């Protein structure tokens, strides 16, 4: 049993609006809530509902209300299935992991509507397309697959192959472009209709890429995070690094450690192996805040739009022991 924590209102304002504090130690235990033990993954609802999904090795997927910290839904995945990845948008939830499949659930009635079978290795990453009519999955079998889930019977539409396992994926708002980050440090762009490669960049991060995300407003810019303890913004039209972010205190040991843009694209952030949260300005790359609250490695980090206050941002982080902090 862990605690949901929340920064004080004053510090939340600094973190999410001005971000002018150099450090933050005021994560207060505002209320307790049952938490999944050893949670490793989180994702904010892409559609802006203020919901957060988490999953972990105990075969449980959970959906939380980020405004209150309350548990809204819990999904028990059949069998001894350690969950590695999840996503949520528009009332649809995804969970996938070591059983080589991806399960698609309706949030409202907690009903599984699809069980996507086709990978021959662990599913490391999943992402819902806009309007939740399709899913892309990435596996240790070195393939990425696109699935049409808009009908009663799902259909695998295209499959991509690359020589190194994908650790992370994201899909552009046009539905036509996907980006994947691989264990060998390669960043790859794909046409989701034909499966054709649209280019890539080798050795972007030494030790592997752990996270990729499209810029929320500039479609040709990608945020990446790597095992070399750095974040980068990449222009995928010129295949050039525009900005690099780092800190001597930032350490990463988790191969799917996430990073995120703020919803307005003005900041980027991530967690570290020592439990701190780091935030940088995208313009200039200056470190703006180091927030302390976790006592162990941060395995999940997301930056979303608050459902309770228009224009307000929320940050969620989860450590390897299942403690989730809402900032």
Label this structure with key terms.
five-stranded mixed beta sheet; 1 helix; globular; about 325 residues; mainly beta
> Sheet bearing the most strands, described?
5 strands, mixed
Terminal CA distance reads 20 Å
Please identify the structural class as seen in this structure.
mainly beta
Q: Please count the helical segments.
A: 1
Structure description:
By secondary structure, the protein is mainly β. Helices cover 3% and strands 50% of the residues. The protein is built from one helix and 30 strands. The strands form seven sheets. Strands 3-1-30-29-28 form a five-stranded mixed beta sheet. The longest helix has 10 residues. The chain is globular. It starts with a strand and ends with a strand. The N terminus is likely disordered.
Concise description?
It is built from one helix and 30 strands.
Furnish the topology, listing elements before pairings.
Elements: E1 5-7, H1 9-18, E2 23-24, E3 27-28, E4 41-44, E5 51-55, E6 60-65, E7 70-76, E8 83-89, E9 92-97, E10 101-106, E11 111-117, E12 123-128, E13 134-139, E14 143-148, E15 155-161, E16 166-171, E17 177-182, E18 187-191, E19 197-201, E20 209-214, E21 221-226, E22 231-235, E23 240-245, E24 259-261, E25 267-271, E26 276-281, E27 287-292, E28 298-305, E29 313-319, E30 324-326
Parallel strand pairs: 1-30, 2-27
Antiparallel strand pairs: 1-3, 4-5, 5-6, 6-7, 8-9, 9-10, 10-11, 12-13, 13-14, 14-15, 16-17, 17-18, 18-19, 20-21, 21-22, 22-23, 24-25, 25-26, 26-27, 28-29, 29-30
